[in-house]
Amino acid sequence: MWKRERRVAAAGALADSLSSLVGERVRLVVHDNRSTMVSFRRVSGLLHYRVHHMFLDAPKDVVHALAAFAGPGQGMAARRRDAGGRIDAYVRQHRARIGEPRPAQLQARGSVHDLQAIFDRLNAEYFEGRVEARIGWGPNRGGRRRRTIKTGVYVQEARLIRIHPALDGREVPELYVAAVVFHEMLHQIVPAVERNGRRIVHGAEFRRRERAYPDHDRAKHWEEENLQLLLSHR
Fold first, then answer.
1. Which of 143, 186, 201, 222 has the fewest CB atoms nearer than 10 Å to its CB?
2. Whole-model pTM?
3. Does domain 4-97 correspond to CATH entry 3.40.50?
4. Reduced DSSP (H G I as helix, E B as strand, rest coil) percent helix, strand, coil of the chain, to 5
5. 234 pLDDT exceeds 70?
């Protein structure tokens, strides 16, 4: 892990480089997340970047890709696609730098649903006990009302499943929570593949096996009927 002074200096240099390349004011936040490595948004004339710390010492071509990923102008879609491919390749090369959370940070027993019990049942019934992963609730960040929600995430390198705390409510049926857990467990059995320079996470085999899960349709229907309930979680 970088010392704080070096990290601050590197973050400042990266922000200056991005600002020069995109021709906009840039605010850079460096994080240690394990899922989304790069994101950006524009607010009040300021370009906000969030990047994983692995990018602090990225080579020039990757910094240019970060700039192109958010850059406006003609041909934006094609540039963003090419830049995304270069960024993905860099992340794959440096996956060892994506940290695993400390075990103490992971809680499987929620106020309503016990993720470990659900995991163990699914592992025995559908995976012959082959899935080896830790599971727990993600942090409850609160804040403003969201427009989308990522109900679960599987971190391949850490063999870790996190479930969004919005699902730990009495109004959320266990069949839905179990379907989300099943989806994340399936990622270990049917991992992502590289095809024509693209990383395919939910390929045909993954979708086939997910649809074969007995409660898949009922869980999907419940989500469609109750999406606003999940989005309103604080």
1. 143
2. 0.59
3. no
4. 50, 15, 35
5. no
